[in-house]
O-acetyl-ADP-ribose deacetylase
Amino acid sequence: MTITVVTADLTRLALDAIVNAANPGLLGGGGVDGAIHRAAGPALLAACRALSEVTPGVRCPTGEARITPGFKLPARYVIHTVGPIWHGGHAGEAALLASCYRACIALAVAHDLQGIGFPAISCGVYGYPPEQAASVAITALRDVPAAHPALDVQLCCFDQRMAAIWQHALNQA
Ligand code: AR6
């Protein structure tokens, strides 16, 4: 697996899949979720709505992932995951965030996808400190079995400040 940090708008990446930092309802929101739905068009919302509810209003519990087509996006698929809300770090946030990365990679492998772009899951509205999120993410990705050597993981940061934090974490790993 190769892991690189890129500074970009995730919705512009022509990869096999991009990851959406969604909420459990999977019916859109702000941040990168809103940007992905705007760029993909209304068919994405319909595809999300068609995913079955685990409990009322919950299509994807925190730490899990679901896949849909990418519709008008340059990416072929969207892998929706729900990161943890930051509550100070003692509420299982790191385990849940690591689970997001593993679940997304598992779906990518199951669908034979190689190029996958991740946003900084939970680092916006959900308040996860980016230094800690980067470390958790990279550790989780590095633990993916070596049986998937073709995976090309792009950690997509929206701005240079975030990219510097993620690149530093990658260099430390
Ligand atoms: N490309 C790349 N990164 C982006 C983009 C983009 N177009 N737009 C934002 N980011 P957030 P969360 C960065 O808040 O913290 C939504 O309402 C952003 O700068 O999108 O997991 C959902 O519906 C930040 O670094 O996701 C949920 O309710 C990172 O993406 C909730 O927000 C994640 O920020 C999820 O919160």
Observations:
- The domain at 2-172 is CATH 3.40.220.10 (Leucine Aminopeptidase, subunit E; domain 1).
- The mean pLDDT is 96.
- The pocket of AR6 is lined by residues 9-11, 21-23, 29-33, 35, 83, 119-126, 156, 158, 162 (CB under 6 Å).
- Residues 133 and 152 are 20 Å apart (CA to CA).
